[in-house]
Design goal:
This protein is mainly beta. The chain is built from 1 helix and 13 strands. Strands 1, 2, 5, 6 and 13 form a 5-stranded antiparallel sheet that branches. Strands 3-8-11-10-9 form a 5-stranded antiparallel sheet, with no helix packed on it.
Length: 152
């Protein structure tokens, strides 16, 4: 039996989504989540660095969601920019808390020279950075709706 990375990653990302959708559809909004249930925090805007612009109608936001006792970071929104090096694009909002280790995910970006994804990373200091662009392969936009990763 053979498994490729894409099918394994797809299955791993589908499980939390399926759990969240299934649990959300059966629990009234006013009910507190049961042990092992789903609890989603409010979406909170990232504090953007100079030179980084939120896309119209899609400000970059993050939230923490707990599914069966495991905490995940989810992000959404888009930015426009002109990055030619690994760059800090934002900070976590005040009061959000910071991870105890680097938290990483991939995010879609403009297709340049066949590269259409960048690394999205949050440091223990709360800095949000994008990795991958360079002078020959500039990053002009990134979209965060697919970012979901374990929060530590």
């Amino acid at each position: 039996m053979s498994f490729d990375r894409r099918s394994i990653l797809g299955a791993a990302l589908a499980v939390p989504t399926a759990l969240a959708v299934g649990a959300a559809s059966t629990v009234p909004a006013s009910a507190a989540p049961a042990e092992g249930g789903v609890q989603a925090g409010a979406w909170t805007d990232l504090v953007l660095a100079p030179g980084i612009t939120a896309a119209e109608g899609a400000p970059p936001q993050v939230r923490l969601i707990t599914i069966a006792g495991t905490v995940f970071l989810q992000a959404r929104g888009s930015i426009t920019c002109n990055l030619t090096a690994d760059t800090r694009i934002a900070s976590l909002p005040a009061g959000f808390g910071s991870p105890t280790a680097h938290v990483r995910a991939t995010a879609p970006r403009n297709n340049s020279a066949g590269i259409n994804a960048c690394r999205f990373e949050i440091s223990p200091a709360g800095s949000v950075s994008l990795y991958g662009p360079n002078a020959g392969n500039p990053l002009t936009w990134a979209q965060f709706d697919s970012v979901q990763t374990i929060w530590r």
